Amino acid sequence: QLHQNPGLYSVLRTQAERVLERVAAGTRPADQVGRYLRARPPAKIPDLSTAAKDLGLSARSLRRRLAEDATSYRLLVRATLEASAGHMLLNPMHSIQETAHAMGFSNVGAFHRAFKRWTGMTPAQYRERRGGHAGDPEKQ
After folding, report:
1. 27-77 pLDDT, tens per residue?
2. Residues 6 or more apart from 80 whose CB is under 8 A from it?
3. Is the N or C terminus of the chain more exposed, i.e. has fewer CB atoms within 10 Å?
4. Residue 139 near residue 133 (C-beta atoms within 8 A)
5. Measured between alpha carbons, how far is 117 from 94 in angstroms, rounded to an integer?
6. Rounded distance, CA 104 to CA 122, Å?
C-alpha cells in the first residue's frame, strides 16, 4: 500500500536504491573511507571536511552515512593510525621515534600515550609481544 502515499514511496524507494547501489558495488561507506585513509600517509590524514569533499560528499552526508554504518570518521582515523603504527613497530628498521614522527606526532611521549590508549600497551611492549626487537636500544 506504499504506492498510495507518493511522498513515503519516494523516500523509501530512494533509500532502497542507495542500499542496492552499495550492495552492488560491495562498498560500505566505512570501507570506502577506510580505503581513502589508508591511501594517505598517516601524518597527512585530512580532517572530516576535506575527506568528505575529496569523496564528493558534504561533511554532513559523510557523517550520516558513517553513522548508518555504525561508525564515525574519528573511529576510522584511529583504526588507520593504530594499524599503521603497529605495522611500522613490527619492522625493526623503524625506531619508535621514527614511527611517532611518521604518524604525525610532534613527540614520542604523545605517541606513546596515544598508542597505549589504542592498544592497552606501550610501543615497546607491542614490539616485544608481537615479535619485534624492543630490546635493541638502537631501535628505541
Report:
1. 788 988 998 999 999 999 999 999 999 988 999 999 999 999 999 999 999
2. 34, 37, 38, 42, 45
3. N
4. yes
5. 21
6. 17
